[in-house]
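FORM 12-B: Structure-to-Sequence Request
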């Protein structure tokens, strides 16, 4: 059923019911044929700088909706309808997208890829008493001081420390850091790497920043080359990554190039070509190591789903996280026995599931209790699992 039709029917039902009891702030409603509907918002970028990664996250959510299309509330079965908005990888557009989801009366929101847009929309969801479940937004500020925001991924302090540990364990003594000015994910992760790396006795020999939409990094990379680092840590978007990688290799830089979870995207390999060989990154999931039966089922089913949708059959970690965020939302709705946001928020605090990316429950901040990351490299034009690591 088309979204506009559902919304029109919901609005008509509310206007009619308001003569007697007023319209509920929840999103449960009766669709044509008597089916009951609960709406889940998908707050993701499908265009802009992070559009590629955001779309991968959306695919995981869509697949979860395909395999788990209903939810029981108080013993009655409701159809789950996804209401998707594009926050366009932009903080201002994120506010508009969030307000659209509020107006659509969704019960819970999933997303977003990109910490900056998640932070920008956080207060809007909190004011509307609609809980949000982030999939891969790793900056601590996403949930900080917002008891309506949760997430199923690990955080940047953990991820930055994990990558610093990896660098140290592999003999790196000097590191350079490249971050994007004004980007919460990039600057935050770079800062956490710096703190952890220097704490292990390493030296930061160069810190460089670049502007959004910048395409020429040769001046930055020339400065770095002069300092001869063992490793370059450059957390950035999948749009920027291949440019940095290719230009570094063209300048003859041989240092290991490393980043965080955003770089686990096949478009980086396609665009950087042979220059991507040896790149190292941290991520949340590895399809070669299913954590449980849910993960094993997801891997086989999602590969077929990707093929049907003419997508690369390599499973991105963010797709798995998007799937897990959806499962957490369903569990919270069932536990609450309600489509009301505040009740779902309260239920989320005690939710525990065995998801595709492992067991998921939330701490007092709404952050997932996770203590392990996967380290991968690019070898032979493919992502290759290296090791798992935890914080020392």
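FORM 12-B RESPONSE
SEQUENCE OUT:
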């Amino acid at each position: 059923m088309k979204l506009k039709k559902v919304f029109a029917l919901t609005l008509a039902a509310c206007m009619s019911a308001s003569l007697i009891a007023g319209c509920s702030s929840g999103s449960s409603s009766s669709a044509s044929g008597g089916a009951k509907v609960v709406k889940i918002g998908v707050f993701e970028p499908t265009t802009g700088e992070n559009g590629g990664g955001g779309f991968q996250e959306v695919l995981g959510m869509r697949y979860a909706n395909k395999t788990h299309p209903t939810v029981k509330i108080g013993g009655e079965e409701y159809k789950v309808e996804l209401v998707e908005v594009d926050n366009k990888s932009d903080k201002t557009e994120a506010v508009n997208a969030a307000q659209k989801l509020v107006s659509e009366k969704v019960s819970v929101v999933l997303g977003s890829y990109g910490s900056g847009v998640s932070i920008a929309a956080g207060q809007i969801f909190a004011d509307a008493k609609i809980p949000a479940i982030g999939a891969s937004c790793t900056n601590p500020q996403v949930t900080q001081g917002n008891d309506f925001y949760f997430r199923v991924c690990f955080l940047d302090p953990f991820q930055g420390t994990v990558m610093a540990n990896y660098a140290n364990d592999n003999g790196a003594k000097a590191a350079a850091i490249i971050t994007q000015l004004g980007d919460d994910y990039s600057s935050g992760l770079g800062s956490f790497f710096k703190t952890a790396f220097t704490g292990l006795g390493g030296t930061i020999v160069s810190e460089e920043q670049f502007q959004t939409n910048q395409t020429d990094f040769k001046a930055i990379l020339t400065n770095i080359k002069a300092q001869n680092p063992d490793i370059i840590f450059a957390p950035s978007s999948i749009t920027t990554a291949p440019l940095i990688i290719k230009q570094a290799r063209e300048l003859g830089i041989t240092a290991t190039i490393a980043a965080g979870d955003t770089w686990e995207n096949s478009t980086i390999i396609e665009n950087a070509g042979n220059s991507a060989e040896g790149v190292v990154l941290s991520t949340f999931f590895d399809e070669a190591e299913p954590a449980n039966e849910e993960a094993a089922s997801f891997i086989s089913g999602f590969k077929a789903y990707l093929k049907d949708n003419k997508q690369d059959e390599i499973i991105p970690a963010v797709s798995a996280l998007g799937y897990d965020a959806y499962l957490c939302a369903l569990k919270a709705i069932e536990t609450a026995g309600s489509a009301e946001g505040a009740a779902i928020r309260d239920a989320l605090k005690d939710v525990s599931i065995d998801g595709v990316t492992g067991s998921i429950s939330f701490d007092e901040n709404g952050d997932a209790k996770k203590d392990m990351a996967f380290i991968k490299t690019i070898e032979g034009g493919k992502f290759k699992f290296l090791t798992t690591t935890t914080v020392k």
